[in-house]
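New to this. Help decode the following:
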Amino acid sequence: MPAPRPILIIEDDAALRATLAEQLTLDGDFTADEADSVSAAEAKLADANARYDAILLDIGLPDADGRDFCAKLRRDGRRMPVIMLTGADGEQDVVRGLDSGANDYIAKPFRLPELLARVRAQLRIFDNSEDATFSVGPYLFRPSVRLLTEPSRNRKIRLTDKECAILKFLYRAGGKPVSRHILLNEVWGYNSAVTTHTLETHVYRLRQKIEPDPSQARLLLTEAGGYKLAPAALGIGQA
């Protein structure tokens, strides 16, 4: 199963923030981190180990306007989906929020299932956009164009559709092993003609492209009847 996706909730209403965090994490699809102000959010985003796949952002924060903060996030090059939570849903308020760089907005009071559906929808859009860039070891991974770039060596590595799908699914697993059968089903779908040998061949070719020494894999590891990306390659501390 893919690892839960980290969401940052920036909301000064403590009760609402706690409810959002509880509901987001209920089915295991997401983890939630919380901030009650822009300054608290900036501190969390400044952490080198922090990674957020989406942000829920209240407009009315005690130390700043959420729309101004959203615009700053975009200026700083942060491209993850931002969904604004607003008590003002007049047309001008909506337009100003979207103009600041927000991907979507939802007016309070809102139904939690609708909010969760919007988060999932924005993540699906983002994952398939050219803005989606993920760090894997020394590489920047852009699934939308099936490309790995290695800035330190000014190198580009083209991936096949299947190599890209394997790498993307392992990335989503957050450093946890994924069995061969799950990878087969996720990448090829149910197809009785496709065997684990097919997967192993694709992994072998992927290692030839991304490993400095393919005979001593350090990024794409074999483990527990399957494969995983090394936690260190994802910037995840080993437990």
The radius of gyration is 20 Å. The first strand starts at residue 5 and ends at 10. The helical segments are 14-25, 38-46, 66-75, 91-99, 112-127, 161-172, 180-188, 196-210. The CA atoms of residues 207 and 216 lie 10 Å apart.
